[in-house]
Every structure is written in structure tokens, then in C-alpha cells.
Amino acid sequence: MTPRSRAAVDAWKKRVEQAVKDADASFRGEYAAELNDLLGLSKEEIDAITPDATDLTEYNRLIAVVKEASQRNLSQAQLRSQIKALGETAVKIAGKVSGLARILL
User: Fold this and answer.
1) Number of domains in the chain
2) Percent of the chain with pLDDT over 90
3) Domain residues for 17?
């Protein structure tokens, strides 16, 4: 293995290790239960929100926001603001998770 390819592999390993640490932090953070419930939504539940594929895109964006909020222990007001900034579809998806629905009230 060349030094250049070795450096690329080492950089990749570091990114993977960081991703695992971030994921662990998400599931130990302030919104761990909400994140678990959000990830537990079925494709059918998500598809019922809009007839096109935008709901899956918004679902993924919502997951990213809740993960980040959980990692950083954001306040409920901050999380509410972030979810609402994603738009109506993300708000509807969040409404299917009881913990997130309470935050959005």
C-alpha cells in the first residue's frame, strides 16, 4: 500500500470512528427517545404524508436535526425552531412522534 493510499484509509477510519461516536451521543442525548421513535416510523406512515418522494427526503433531514439536537442537548425551543425551519412536511412527520409533537405545540 502506498503512503498516499494508507493516508486515505486512515482518514476514512477516523471519519467512521467519529460517526460512531456521534451516533452514540445522539442515542444518549436529550432527545434519544424521540429519535428512536422517529426511526421506528414505517415507510407507510411516512408515505401517508405526501404522495411523492419528498417526504422521505424531509424524513432524513428531520432525523439529522433531531440527532444533532440530541448530541448537543439543545433546548426544546431550539429544536422546535429547527424542525419548523425544515417546513410543513417535516413538521407533519415530527407530529407522528409523540415526544416531538409535544415539543411542537
Assistant:
1) 1
2) 50
3) 3-104
Tell me, what amino acid is at 13?
A: K
CB of 73 closer than 8 Å to CB of 49? no
Residue 105 identity: L
| Residue 84 pLDDT exceeds 80 | yes
AA identity, residue 12 = W
In tens, the pLDDT along 35-80 reads: 999 999 998 888 888 777 778 889 999 999 999 999 888 999 999 9
